[in-house]
Amino acid sequence: MNRLPRRRRAACLVTAVALTAATAGCSALGAGGSAKGQYVVWDPYPQFDAGSPWAALLDSCGAQAGVKVVRNTFDTGEMTGLLEAAVAQSAQPDVLIVDNPAVADLVGRGLLTTTDQSGIATSAVQPNLLAAGQDHTGTYGTPIGANTLALYYNKNLLRSAGVDISTVKDWASLTDALAKVTSSGKQGITFVGAASEEETFQFLPWFWGAGAQLTRLDSVQARSALSLWTDWVHHGYTTLVANSPTQGDSWKNFQTGQVAFAENGTWELPSAKQLPFGYGIIPVPAEGGGDAPVPLGGEFVTIPVQKNAARYAASNKIVTCLTSADNSYATDRTLSYIAPTTAVQGKQVTADPSLAVWRRAVQDAKGRTSDNLGSKYAGISQALANAVSTSLSGNKTPQAALHAAAQTAGAAK
């Protein structure tokens, strides 16, 4: 996911009706309407303005490809509608950087080229990361980097509560730690409680860590995972659901210094380094011990289908430049992502040993649309998120909530 906290609206956003720039000086045209020698790149990073290293990299990659890059940023939640409107006007971008779960949906709509068509090289990419952009018909783009989840912990609170972090290895030992922290007058853990993709993203390590599958939302394993979270809420081990509707809000709870654990992602590392208390990071534990599989976040660099296939050659050069080893290292450091290749990951960990736990998590991460879910994932995710929120609020038991989710997800397939 991208960085899951919702991004602010892009400063230069294509409107679905007119396909005109929202602000002066920003081109909204794609291949069908661009001037000769211009190649349009859409990216979901409005936080990086025209003077940023990211914008400079885009310009540099365009120059290396012998073209001028025209950049347009967008709000992730509006991307699909904007792209479809652009395609209808033959104004789609030449290069599209998109949250990895959206790849399957765009493929289902026939909007993306395969790497065989576009010529993008992917042999160096870690297979589980590349899988987030694959289905039985091919590979659609390449990851620019990856993020995922782990557990941040407050060393001071755990020490005061008599918890040795080295003993937290499974659900039982984690729950015991939460009980001790709560008994000491502090909060145990914070996570997202609102029914959204962010909630599904945060619940999946526990769901998969119990052995559950997204194709069977009402399994015994799924009930075990939801019962864990529901019991934590019932016993007061977690912050109130209303206080953590997004990962950003959940992180703010952890920043108060009153919460022992926070499930959150690589994107909070810069903020974590500014915390006024000692912190550490451990992988999310599976139910019976070991590391739970965690969901893969991050974006794919893709090449949309063009009527003029001759454009793919320059687009491929831009993508190759953006994802080269040197540029990948710089960009993923800026994004606080883990690189998609083992060589660059090694360079990252050498420069910052604290990234080792994140490299370990990313190497075991799983694409949300994997298991041949493709475009079905969106409906399954929303059904699961609704079940989690319904159970945490006490309106339904975990079993009843998941049964309803399974029926909803089945009807949506």
What does this structure look like?
By secondary structure, the chain is α/β, with parallel strands linked by helices. It contains 17 helices and 11 strands. Strands 2-1-3-11-6 form a 5-stranded mixed beta sheet. Strands 8-9-7-10 form a 4-stranded mixed beta sheet. Helix 8 packs across helix 16 and helix 16 runs antiparallel to helix 17. It starts with 37 loop residues before the first strand and ends with a helix. The N terminus is likely disordered.
Order of strands, main sheet, comes to 2-1-3-11-6
Strand share of the residues? 5-15%
Shape: globular
How is the main sheet built? Answer: 5 strands, mixed
- Strand segment tally: 11
Report the structural category: alpha/beta
Low-confidence stretches: 2-29
What labels would you give this structure?
413 residues, alpha/beta, 5-stranded mixed β-sheet, 17 helices, disordered N terminus
Provide a brief overview of the structure.
It is built from 17 helices and eleven strands. The protein has helices at residues 53-64, 79-88, 100-108, 115-118, 127-130, 155-160, 171-183, 197-209, 220-234, 247-255, 269-272, 312-322, 325-335, 342-351, 356-363, 377-392, 398-412, and strands at 38-43, 68-73, 95-99, 134-135, 138-139, 142-143, 149-154, 187-190, 259-265, 279-282, 299-302.
